[in-house]
Design brief:
235 residues; six-stranded antiparallel sheet; 12 strands; 7% helix; SH3 type barrels; mainly beta
Length: 235
């Protein structure tokens, strides 16, 4: 009897494919938007296994605490600001309309008030290229240029933790524990390298090209392997 494919097991939602959110320090996002400037202090810098960048715990004067990616050169006890009229210093949160062009930013909101969706990994940074009456053009770490609403907020600076990808994974065990922290499936063998019970393409002999046949949109998950709804030739 064959086993479930990866997409079947992932769709079931078992613990193997679920993120270990209970082991994380908390959600990393900006504080709620305010109509006036609020000051806060960095009370702690946390290493969380669910994030590639260190997190800074900020306590604001109005009593709100939040976790945000820590920028470079931030220390415990430093003052950060959030709201209109804030200074252009690392860790401060301002709207894009108040940030000058060319300033490095991170933790950028996709929509005003969503808490930050772009540039949240260690060492990533975006830059403001130009502004119009309603939008700002930012260059993301992927070199892609994207338009953002001027009411969206962002943090000033460069996220700490740069250079994490420069250190090679010298042992398979190191990669195993790195993936295990975020519950990513690893290693991920090819279909032809698996056993016959694990995948329709798997067998103990050489890979059989005749098994790779087109599959339609309405096929069940167990048959969605190979050429998934390919386009006609020439289209």
């Amino acid at each position: 009897m064959g086993k479930s494919l990866i997409q079947q097991a992932r769709g079931k939602g078992g613990p193997t494919y679920r993120s270990k959110g209970f082991a994380y320090a908390g959600e990393s996002k900006l504080r709620t938007d305010t109509s006036q400037l609020v000051k806060g202090k960095v009370t702690n810098i946390i290493k969380c296994q669910g994030h590639t960048a260190p997190l800074m715990e900020v306590k604001y004067d109005d009593g709100i605490r939040c976790l945000m990616p820590a920028p470079e050169f931030i220390r415990i006890g430093d003052e950060v600001q959030s709201g209109p009229g804030g200074e252009i210093n690392p860790g401060n949160t301002l709207k894009l309309k108040e940030i000058p062009e060319g300033t490095p930013v991170y933790n950028i909101e996709s929509q005003p008030g969503d808490g930050g969706k772009f540039c949240k990994t260690g060492g990533s940074v975006a830059r403001i290229l130009a502004k119009t009456e309603s939008y700002a053009t930012l260059r993301l770490p992927s070199k892609q240029e994207k338009l953002f609403n001027l009411e969206c907020r962002a943090c000033i600076g460069i996220i700490a933790g740069a250079g994490r990808l420069e250190k090679p994974m010298l042992k398979a065990g190191t990669k195993h524990f790195r993936k295990r922290m975020t519950n990513k499936r690893w290693p991920n063998p090819s279909a032809a390298a698996q056993n016959a019970v694990d995948h329709p393409f798997g067998n103990k002999r050489t890979s059989r090209k005749a098994k790779n046949k087109p599959v339609g949109h309405h096929a069940p998950p167990g048959r969605k392997a190979g050429k998934l709804w390919p386009k006609p030739r020439g289209s």
